[in-house]
Every structure is written in C-alpha cells, then in structure tokens.
TrEMBL record:
A Gene Ontology biological process term: carbohydrate metabolic process
Identification of the protein by name: Chitooligosaccharide deacetylase
Residues of the NodB homology domain: 19-262
Pfam families, alphabetized: Polysacc_deac_1
InterPro entries, sorted: Glyco_hydro/deAcase_b/a-brl, NODB_dom, PgdA-like
Entry GO MF terms: hydrolase activity, acting on carbon-nitrogen (but not peptide) bonds
Species assigned in the record: Stella humosa
C-alpha cells in the first residue's frame, strides 16, 4: 500500500544564526527573538492538526529559552541536535566541533531525558570529521545533505573530491541521511538579508511558495509508492502572519492528499526497517 510521509522540521535558531555571522546588535537579535513568540503559534497549529514535528535547536538556544523548549518537549515533538552554536562545522577545528557536539548533546539530554537521534548541521554544511563523530556518538540519522529528494539513503564518508579529477567515493556507513533541499526551506524564499557582501531579496509571495511545496509532494506521490519529503522551517521566518496561513494551508492540503505526518526519527526508523527487508534500494 502506498505510503507518503511528510516531515516538518523546525530549526529553532532564534538569534544564533545572526550571531554566527557577527550580527549581534539589537535589531538582528530582535529579529531572531521573534522566533520565540512564533514558536508558540506553531505549537498551537501543530496541536490543532495533531501533527508531530522535529525541532532542531542549538544548545545556546536551549539554555537561553528553556521554558519554550520545555513546551516543545511537552507537546511530544522530537528535539534534534543543531550544534552548540550556529557556526557551521566546516568552519570549526576538529576539537571545536567535538566540543560543540558534546555540549549540544548534554543540553538535549538535560531537556528531554534522552540523547538525540538526529543531527542537522547549522547552515547545512558538515566537515570531514562530522560523519565519524555522529556515528561515534550514536546518532541514527543526519539531515544536512541533498543527494535525493524523497528517499533517505546511507551517508558516505571518505569521499575525495578535487576540482580537476574524477571523484573517488568513500564507503557507505550506517548513518541515515534524511535529505533536505533549499527549495523546501522557508529562509531563502522569505528572508531579506543585507550584508556588506550581498543582498538576499527574499520576501516572496507565500501563496506561490505554497504551490511549489505542494507540487513537490504531488510529484513524490506520482513517482513512488513510499517516500519521505522534509520541509525545513524557521519559527522567526514562517511565524509571520501570512506565512502562518501558508503553513496551515500546507498541512491541510497535504492531509487531504493522504500525507502521513511524522518526525524525522520515526521516518528514519521506518526507512531502516524497509531497507533491512529489501524493500528499498537507496540512492546514492
């Protein structure tokens, strides 16, 4: 029987992403802090529709906004690892990355009483050491890569990629990749950013973005019997009024199409079981 899974992942960054870019003045901090208010709106919406979700929270955000994070846990949602800070592991030394991973795990254990099953890299970039660290610390899955659109797969390690040579691929691991996409992320569509280096216009019409997001589910439904589509949302982005209406519209439209909503952890476990039974041959 066909089964089409939808995972809503909320990157609860607040101001940590701006701080990682050196933006620590009051205005960007307040822009990120709107996400604390918006998280309450989102929790109410998820409760009304009985939709479980996965929340990826940097350790510094857990330690700053404990009450809101406790509400996320009390509502039954998954809490995944999203770094200690929002600095990409690719920009950290191996020692800094290890320390941040452990500090983030410790924060999640204090919050939830259990170790996180999933990891999502800040800024969706990992280092040459990340995969080994995640396996060492017992993660089931990670969700920072884009090698498929609606089928999980097993992460490789040890790839050798040079600009002037054919690729040499490493070995697959037991770590499950729950793929994501910038096209299914609210930030590039909606957020206006101005720095010394560039301007990111954002501010797109939410109804048009909603059409794209629904169409990706339609394509999955038309082309495979089993799949997982992950949407990535940031409370301070999606939590604005007209975008909340779009999020509600997305949930309602996908529910009418027969979508099964679950956490990324639950979807990863289902994928692992189907692979073990030989029902799925993942790519890449």
């Amino acid at each position: 029987m066909p089964r089409h899974i939808v995972c809503l992942g909320f990157d609860f960054d607040t101001w940590s992403g701006f701080a990682a870019r050196g933006l620590t003045t009051p205005s960007p901090v307040s822009r990120g802090e709107f996400g604390v208010l918006a998280a309450g709106r989102i929790l109410d919406l998820l409760k009304r529709h009985d939709v479980p979700a996965s929340w990826y929270i940097p350790g510094i955000v857990i330690e700053t906004y404990k009450a809101r994070c406790e509400e996320i846990v009390a509502a039954g949602h998954e809490v995944g690892h999203h770094g200690w800070t929002h600095v990409s592991p690719a920009n950290l030394s191996p020692e800094e990355e290890t320390d941040g991973l452990i500090r983030g795990i410790d924060s999640i254990v204090r919050l939830t009483g259990r170790r996180p099953a999933g990891y999502r890299s800040p800024a969706w970039d990992i280092s040459d050491h990340t995969v080994d660290l995640l396996i060492e610390h017992g993660f089931l899955y990670e969700s920072s890569m884009m090698g498929n659109d609606h089928c999980p797969y097993f992460v490789r390690r040890g790839d050798i990629i040079r600009p002037d040579q054919p690729a040499v691929f490493g070995q697959h691991t037991s770590l499950i990749e729950m793929p994501i996409s910038w096209s299914l992320d609210d930030f590039p569509h909606f957020e206006f950013m101005r720095t010394k280096e560039h301007v990111m216009p954002g501010l797109m019409n939410a109804s048009l973005v909603l059409e794209n997001w629904i169409a990706d589910f339609d394509y999955m439904q038309q082309t495979c019997d089993w799949g997982v589509l992950s949407y990535t949302l940031h409370p301070y982005v999606i939590g604005r009024g007209h975008r909340m209406l779009a999020l509600a519209g997305l949930i309602e439209a996908l529910a009418k199409r027969g979508a099964v909503f679950c956490t990324l952890e639950a979807a990863a476990l289902e994928f692992r079981d189907k692979f073990a039974r030989g029902e799925i041959v993942p790519y890449p």
